[in-house]
Write a sequence for this structure.
């Protein structure tokens, strides 16, 4: 049984796996951060955000020395699952940590949600 967690992520409760809900591909154990099962692409923020002024004080938040943009993709179909802005050197965030055992109890008996 699969349970929808986000727009692009499901958890297969029987196999305890994160899955892409677009293609059904398996990512990684649901007891691990899903981001570890994704393809990552680091983007220069200047590729996405155009300068808002010629004055550098207004553009520091788009400086790659201050921020990086990390994109997470399904390794099977390529859909972008998530993205995050982080300072250089900062570890990836663990933004979702579901209680797998509680989900199994809640959904025991069948059905999908």
């Amino acid at each position: 049984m699969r349970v929808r967690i986000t727009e692009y992520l499901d958890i297969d409760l029987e196999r305890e796996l994160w899955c892409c809900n677009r293609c059904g591909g398996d990512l990684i154990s649901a007891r691990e951060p899903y981001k570890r099962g994704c393809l990552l692409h680091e983007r220069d923020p200047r590729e996405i955000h155009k300068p808002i002024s010629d004055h550098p004080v207004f553009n520091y938040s788009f400086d790659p020395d201050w921020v990086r943009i990390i994109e997470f993709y399904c390794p099977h179909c390529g859909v972008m699952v998530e993205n995050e802005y982080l300072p250089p050197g900062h570890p990836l965030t663990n933004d979702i940590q579901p209680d797998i055992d509680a989900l199994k109890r809640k959904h025991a008996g069948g059905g999908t949600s």
